[in-house]
Amino acid sequence: MKDNEENLKQSQSSEELKNEDQNLEKEDLNKNENESIKEEVDNDKDEIVNTEIEDLKDSLKRLQADFINYKNRTNRERQQSIELANESLILKILPIIDDLDRAIDSKEEKDEFSSGVELIRDNLLLSLKDFGLQEVDCSDKFDPNYHHAVITEDSDNGSDMILEVFQKGYILNNKCIRPAMVKVSK
């Protein structure tokens, strides 16, 4: 009986050992599963974070491009408004220049006074040239973009040649703000 009891105890103890071994194996498997799940979760978190970072970078690039476009557009609009203001001011000054030209042309004798008027006109034109003003060239063929034909006349010089200038024309920054009034050959 003792032997039986001892055998029984040994078999129970061996079963307990087996159960313990199985429990340990299950714990190891659970640990491994938990670790692999943790790794997957960490990888998913990294992927989500990387995706969010890329989205934020794209958003920042778009925002920077929008800002650069805004800055360029406002600079262009500011420059256009300055040019428009210059154009309207210069258009008001042109009749004064025409009057100075007529005063210079009407004087038969050159004296100090007429030389002073001519100097004032030249300085005014030089100052306006700094803003992009230039006279329309009237030494060549008639161009409807820069010349306004007031009179046509038969001539031996050929057709569409400028014969006489009645009023000078002016160009401001490559835009004809006032065409020259001219006599043109037929």
TrEMBL record:
Keywords: Chaperone, Cytoplasm, Stress response
Region (Disordered): 1-47
Chief site of localization: cytoplasm
Basic and acidic residues composition bias: residue spans: 15-40
A Pfam entry, by short name: GrpE
Compartment annotation: Cytoplasm
UniProt cross-references to Gene3D superfamilies, sorted A to Z: 3.90.20.20, Head domain of nucleotide exchange factor GrpE
Entries under InterPro entries matching the protein: GrpE (IPR000740), GrpE_CC (IPR013805), GrpE_head (IPR009012)
Subunit description: Homodimer.
Membership in a protein family: Belongs to the GrpE family.
Purpose of the protein: Participates actively in the response to hyperosmotic and heat shock by preventing the aggregation of stress-denatured proteins, in association with DnaK and GrpE. It is the nucleotide exchange factor for DnaK and may function as a thermosensor. Unfolded proteins bind initially to DnaJ; upon interaction with the DnaJ-bound protein, DnaK hydrolyzes its bound ATP, resulting in the formation of a stable complex. GrpE releases ADP from DnaK; ATP binding to DnaK triggers the release of the substrate protein, thus completing the reaction cycle.
Protein name: Protein GrpE
Organism, as annotated: Finegoldia dalianensis
Lineage of source species: Bacteria, Bacillati, Bacillota, Tissierellia, Tissierellales
